[in-house]
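Worked problem 6 (solution included).
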Amino acid sequence: MMNSYIGSSFAECNTEVNSVARFCGLVPFFVSHGVAHFCNQQVSPKGIRVSKNNPLGINSLALLLAGGLIMGLLSGCSSDNNSTQTLSNDSALTDTEQQLIGAITARSGGQGLAAFTLPASDDFTAIPQDPANPITAEKIALGQMIFHDTGFALGGRSNDSETWSCATCHHAAAGFKSGIKQGLGEGGVGFGDEGSERVLSTMFNAVADSDAIDLPDIQPVTSPATLNLAYQDVMLWNGQFGHSENGTINSGIDDAILATPGTPKAENNRRLSGIEIQAVAGLGVHRLKVDTDTPLQNNAEYQRLYQAAYPQSDGDVLQDAALAIAAFERTILANEAPFQRWLGGENGSMNEQEVNGALLFFGKADCAACHTGPGLSSQVGATADEVFFAIGMSDYDTSEPTVHGNVAEDVSRGRGGFTGDVSENFKFKVPQLYNLADTSVFGHGAGFDSIRAVVEYKNTGVAQSELPAGQLDTRFRPLGLTDEEIADLTAFLTTALYDPNLMRYEPTTVPSGNCVVADPLQIDGGFRCPQSGAIN
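Solution. The predicted structure is:
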């Protein structure tokens, strides 16, 4: 059997072979059992390798031809010695990589390696999106600036305006998490490397009344990563945000629960996907202001960006700004990680230990049973049972000095605390797995401080917190991994899933002229920008 992929020059070759090119463009295909792949149709045999420049899509056309005819078509393109097209056969891959291809394909639902391949961030048609919020370059440009600009921190309760942003708790250096156990918006001071030195100001009280001016903006769970978000339809650990027209996970929940008046959940009435709803609600929850007397109205560059993104706006500035943020967030993809490069046909991008760990992930350890899809979170269109799991991870330990406030009972019950369905108690949304190494905070309650600690927890299959009988997910069970296998799996999660260039998503300046991400350290009467180190 031959495992092969055809490089990006294949399209150029097709142009020369006009009779084939006009047939709609031959894409990379794998020849096995007489199955050919034409156009964008994918008939997925074992071992298909996909090129980043030619990810196999799915259309309505597939031709099943004899192997000789297929090879004849192939030779018409492969004979050009000047072409940069390459063919990788069995001899170019190690035995373990061959096994890995088979294991991934078995978990692909008939899609081959494409099922786990992240698209390029500018390949908008390949990125899942809400039909009500089509991704455009203009929206991304606007959303990226708002997301990182502290100039919108104008809805606070104190005199600390313009010192935080969306990115304060979701920044590139921390894998788009907060970098600390408990994200701190208003009320946080300092920043440090990867946000690790941000602490609660002594001027704020984490247990103050809900309407008190000294109540900080903190959450009772860890800040999920805004990385590879596009592959899940609902947001937050309990999935409370998301109610799109074509959504399924929250579609059966009573409106009184899903869109409770007077709460952030009321934004679900906008009938948008989770990323979009979270962006709308999050602006308010995190005391960011966009609608009146803000940089969107007062800054010429923001006015230009807004007009480009919404030349025919209906005047709902809050929703426009939120949808721009969501469009940007959908393009934050860890597509330069070694595993992604390997999926794209770059042999040698993973070392031996990482390949061994990947084989465990898709094989013996069966991690892909829960962590699947391109983001290793869940598949587009997944059911609630495929997105939420009760695996006994603990809530915040409120006795720790770096954790502030209390954890309410409904928060502790996770999905069930939101839906009211006792069968969903203690279930939390499965997270994506890229760039975990950027922080030492894992689990909804920050119960683990290393990737290996999480792997060991999954391996023992013993719950960290005691759950009622029958509540623990049956898929949470001992894995039987040896110490060497734990090390291999940890290596895959730590380095093979690590995109080293996430800073490409973070601007160095924003139109307001404020600091990017946060204005954390007051020095000599000015604020130091974490990105540049300059004093304003």
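Discussion: The longest strand covers residues 521-523.
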